[in-house]
Amino acid sequence: MRSTSPGVGDLTTRARIRDAAVARYAREGFGAPLRAVAEDAGVSAALIVHHFGSKDGLRQVCDAYVLATIRESKERAIASGTTQEVLLQLASLDEYAPLVGYALRSLQAGGAMARDFVEHFVADAEVYLAEAVATGQMRPSRDEKARARYLTVQGLGTLLLDMTLNVPDDPTDVLAMLHGYRDRMMLPAVELFTHGLMTDNTMLDAYLLYVSDPPTGPDAPRTA
């Protein structure tokens, strides 16, 4: 897994520990002990505490790194809008497997850090979707924020459910899980996003009419 952090010292200490932690947590979840991360990185657990303060501090750095790297990847794919870039992203699946696995483990763990993680994904999605709209590569939305949230929840939720239903022979083999997901889901996902699903605006028009003038009375359906 590549490192984007500056400085030779960082490349030989903090980044090596961070990358080892991302890979270990992707395989086993956040219950993995610091000593296992330390062994993977070739350092002592005491050195991890020295650099990151605590296990929570290490996770915060891992969160920031994973979010930034996935953001860069998505921005490159959308900004290029070329078949070559899409194929390059697919070819780089092995490289990004620990990052995706880490994101899924974060969702499985739940709690405040998982919610913050998703909110960062949503905020990033708003930015690169807006850029894609501005360059004419995507259609605008009536509610850009809602679309960004929907796509984020849909994407992460689909991947998480698929991982739960299709556990590989080795449950720590994140790469096998992602290859299986890609083979099952990539074609219908790309086709749906490219050509859409509905052949006309009937359902959308009915919904827009409903939300602009919702029914009232005791028998009316309740909205949240």
Summarize the structure.
This protein has 224 residues and is mainly alpha-helical. The protein is 75% helix and 0% strand.
Overview of this protein structure:
The protein has 224 residues and is mainly alpha-helical. It has a domain at 63-210: Tetracycline Repressor, domain 2, CATH 1.10.357. The protein is built from eleven helices and no strands. Helix 2 packs across helix 5, helix 4 crosses helix 5 and helix 5 (55-80) crosses helix 7 (93-109). The longest helix has 26 residues, at 55-80. The chain is elongated. The N and C termini lie far apart (43 Å). Mean pLDDT is 83; it is low at 2-10. Residues 11-70 form the HTH tetR-type domain. Pfam families: TetR_C_25, TetR_N. GO terms for molecular function: DNA-binding transcription factor activity; transcription cis-regulatory region binding. It comes from Cellulomonas flavigena (strain ATCC 482 / DSM 20109 / BCRC 11376 / JCM 18109 / NBRC 3775 / NCIMB 8073 / NRS 134). This is Transcriptional regulator, TetR family.
Summing up helix and strand content along with how strands pair, one would put the structural category as: mainly alpha
- End-to-end separation in angstroms reads 43 Å
Q: What would the average pLDDT be, to the nearest integer?
A: 83
Q: Radius of gyration in whole Å, from Cα?
A: 21 Å
Give the full name of the CATH homologous superfamily of the domain at 63-210.
Tetracycline Repressor, domain 2
The CATH class of the domain at 63-210 is identified as Mainly Alpha
The portion of residues forming beta strands comes to under 5%
- As residue ranges, the low-confidence spans are 2-10
CATH topology term of the domain at 63-210: Tetracycline Repressor, domain 2
CATH architecture of the domain at 63-210: Orthogonal Bundle
Number of helices: 11
Counting DSSP E segments of at least 2 residues, the number of strands comes to 0
SSE arrangement, N to C: HHHHHHHHHHH
Biggest sheet character = none
Shape: elongated
Residue share in helices? over 70%
InterPro entries: Homeodomain-like_sf, HTH-type_TetR-like_transc_reg, HTH_TetR, TetR_C_25
DNA-binding region: 33-52
GO molecular function: DNA-binding transcription factor activity; transcription cis-regulatory region binding
Protein name: Transcriptional regulator, TetR family
